[in-house]
Amino acid sequence: MDDRLLSERAVDLETIAKAVSQRLSESLKSGERLDNVEMATFPLPHVATFQGFANTLAKTYWTTDEAMKNAWENARFMKNDLAVMECVEMRRRSVALLEWRVVPDNPDNQAQNDAASAVEKIIKRTPRFMQLRENLLYALWYGKYGAQLQWGRALVDGEPRYYVRSWIPVNGDKIVYKTLEGAPYEEERVGIRIGYAQGALEEKYDGQIGPTDRGLAYFLTDEQRDRFIIHHHMIEDGDYDDPYSGGSIYGVGIRSRIFWTWYLMKETLAWLMEYIERSATGFEIWYYPAGNERARDAIKKAAEDRVGHSGNIVLVPQMEGQSGPSYQMQRIEPSMSGAEVCISIVKEFFQHQIKRYILGQTLTTETGATGLGSNVATIHLETYLQIIKYDAINLEETLTRDLVEKIRKFNFPELEENSLYFKIETEEIDHHDRLQSIMALYNMGAPISTEQALSAAGMTMPKDDEDKLINPAVESFRANNQQGAQGGGNPLAQLLGAGGGGGQSEQSESPQKEQSEQERAEPQQQAHPQRGE
Which of 78, 426, 429, 470 lies 20 to 30 angstroms, CA to CA, from 276? Predict the structure, then answer.
């Protein structure tokens, strides 16, 4: 086979590859599905991977949270525990305060860059957007959490755009899911628990209400799902022999993980409070003559008048002939060693165990011995920052899917799906180190982009219509040394003390240098005449 034939065949293969790629892209954009139905189906239905399955008429997953399965009251009371919620809110707040932006999938695509900038402005019009992100992070506690969106239209950069006009949070315990039974193209089917408004909803949305393990739920259509953001925390599968844990694939929260540890801690606190109630005030032993009921009643009244009904009073009859007076009071002070043991167990065992699970360490919330010159505090901080980065990346994916992608679909339908991403800045940029690196490269003669230098300083290029702040010394130097700069000079390096001058300054200095050398040489010639003379 000659080279010409090989070349023609290569061209044909390249053309075919492009045609196939274009056809696939067109089919995906038009919503066509795979011809092979099995490729669009899970190989094994999720409900079939359990020893048995607890189902309802609406075929929904049961509640998997350990606290909810034990008692709804305990699940609600856990949120009132300040020691626990301090750690949860610290994680939520740390992620919610991070900077964010919208980035294109292809930075070289100008249409995506323009759309990313517009979508970022649209998102910034969302009221209380920081609190929206903070509420979604309640998924850390519940396993899942949501928000209902109310869309509106407004002018953004002179163009009418759809934006989030208002939102309200949706408690994670209200969110339920239909079971996955292996149907082709099966997607999550979300339901929201409902109560007294059932009758009004049935009239408006016939056939979308069904029973769950606890009450009724209203199941969303695909169009209604576009008006919800639902965030999930840790996604995992349930145990084979526990069919009630099947719903774990939609999120497991911190509450479920720490429930039994929290429960034992509360039991220990109950024992401590009972000990304090019964023994903290000590004991008083009141003696009275044995067999004298009037004396007994009188001594009882005297004891109650002294300490009230909350004290520990013991009435002891004293037989005649015993040593000591017939009427007397003896006080026994309590020992607090038992209370101190309970406090130590609660604080140093249970609370530290819960705190380490939520935050990964303890030094970000309390003091501790680290040792002189040790790196323990830095290691604790890095551990906490890793957890924050995990939460931030997880939230990025949720907001990309349920917010950015919806805004793209409503405002920029011509763009490809998933061409824009919500990005949270989790890496702190050290601008000083970056500028030092740029200066080192500049001194070595490497070409540096002005835009890159400004970006390293955390700034952007000024626009043409913006006022510019420029060092007047630099402007004067540039105006006076344009000719030298054209001759290969380095005015910026001179200003920064990096050495190297412009051509004109070198030329202006050279005659003065020659003149000074001649003046120094003339006295020497006069002092040392030539031998010939």
Answer: 78
